[in-house]
Amino acid sequence: MVERTSPTSPDQEIIHLLEQxxxxxxxxxxxxxxxxxxxxxxxxxxxxxxxxxALQEALLKIWQKAEQYDPEKGRLFTWMAQxxxxxxxxxxxxxxxxxxxxxxxxxxxxxNNSALSENPVTSDPALRKVVGQLEEKNRQIIDxxxxxxxxxxxxxxxxxxxxxxxxxxxxxxxxxxxxVLSNELLWWCAISLTTFELMISYLGH
Amino acid sequence: xxxxxxxxxxVLELYVLGKLSPEEAAEVERYAREYAEIRQELDATEVALxxxxxxxxxxxxxxxxxxxxxxxxxADKAASRPEKPIHRLRFLAYAASALLVLAIAGLLVLLxxxxxxxxxxxxxxxxxDALGASCDSVQANYAQAKQEMDFLGLPGTQQIxxxxxxxxxxxxxxxxxxxxxxxxxxxxxxxxxxxxxxxxQLWAIVDGKPVDMGVFDVxxxxxxxxxxxxxxxxQAFAVTLEEKGGSPTPTLDQMYVIGNT
Lengths: 205, 261
Description:
The complex is a heterodimer of chains A (205) and B (261).
Chain A: H1 11-19, H2 24-45, H3 48-64, H4 76-99, H5 106-112, H6 125-133, H7 136-147, H8 152-159, H9 163-184, H10 187-204
Chain B: H1 3-8, H2 11-16, H3 22-34, H4 36-55, H5 64-80, H6 83-153, E1 158-164, E2 172-178, E3 183-190, E4 198-206, E5 209-216, E6 225-228, E7 234-243, E8 255-260
Antiparallel strand pairs in B: 1-2, 1-8, 2-3, 3-6, 4-5, 4-7, 7-8
Helix pairs in contact in B: 3-4
C-alpha cells in the first residue's frame, strides 16, 4: 500500500500551515509542486502569459479554499491539480473572451491543442522515456482527461470512441502508466528534477 | 459487491481525474471508506498521476510566486476590509443615535426653559399690567386729589365746619363751598357708622328751609371728598340720619352735625 503521506512528502506540513492560515504554506507548496501545476496549466492554456496568470489565480484559490480540502478523500496534489485545471480552463475562456473570440467554443481550442499531437515537452529525458513506453492511445486518454480536463463526453468525441469506452480506456491507460512509473522508479527523480529546475530558474534570474 | 470488477471498471480513475458527478463521487468515497482495496487503488492512481504530472513539470516564470503571494495578501486584505465599514456604520449608527438623544434632550430642555420663560414673561406682563393699572388709578387719584386741592386752595372757597350735636358730640364734617364756581365738596371727618338700613343725608338751609343735597355713605377708611349739588346763599349745612335712599324732609331729631356759613 502506498503511504498517503510519505515521510519525505511535504504535504503534512503544507496542510498544517494552510490550516494555520500561514502564508508560508503557499511558498512551500510552490517549492514542491509549482512546476507540476504550471505544467498542467501550460498544457491547457498553451500560452506562458496566460499560464502565469492562471497559476497565480490557482494559488490564490488553493489558499482561499484550503479548508475545502479533505485529506480523507485524496492527496493534496490531486486536489490542487483539479483546482489548477479548472482555473486554467476559466482563465483561458476569459482571456479568449477579452480577445473577442467569443464565438470560438472551448472544446475546439482544446482539441487544437497539443494533446493529440506530439507531446510538447519531450526534451526531458525521463519524461520521454516514460511517454515512450506508453501506448499512444493510453497517452492520449490521460492527456485529454488529466491535462486537458475534458469531460468523458468531450474525450469520447475527441477520440471518436463510445462514451462507455472512456472509462475502461482510462483504467487501462492508468494501469500501464503505473507499471511504467514503478518500473522506472521515477518518483524521486521527478521530485529532484522539479527541484533542480526550480533552482535553475531562481539562479537564472 | 464485487470489488475487483468495481476497480476494473475504471470508475476510480475517473474519480481521481475529477470526472464523476457529485453522486458518483460520493459513492466512490463511501466504498473507499469501507474497502481498503479500493482506498489503496485510489491512492496508487493518485500517486501515478502525481508522478506523471511531476514529469511534465515546467518551471514557472520567475516572479510568479511573489505575484501570487501579493494577490493572496491583497485578497486577504480585501476580505477583512468589509468588516470595517460595518463597524464604521455601526459606530455611525451609535453616534447618530447618541446625537439624536442629545438633540431631543436639548430640545426638551429648551422647550422647558422656553415654557418657564414664557410663564415668567406672562407673570411679568401681568405684573406690568397690574402696575400700569395701579399707576393709572394712582394717576387718576392724583389728578382728582390735585383738582380738589386746587379747589380747596382757591380764594373763593369757604370752609364750613359741621360740628356734632348731642347725638354725637365728636362727629365732625366739612363742606367746602365756592359760590364763584357753583361747587360744593363734602368731607366727612368723623361720623358714627350708620345702621344697615339707614343712610346719612346732607342738607342745605336756604332762606330758612332745608334743601336736599343727597345721601352719602360713610367710608371712614377713606378721607374722600364728595361733590354735592350747589345752592346759592345757604345759611347752614346739616347731616341727618334717614331711611336708606333718603327723605324729602329732614328728621330733625336725627341731626348729627350742623354748621353755619
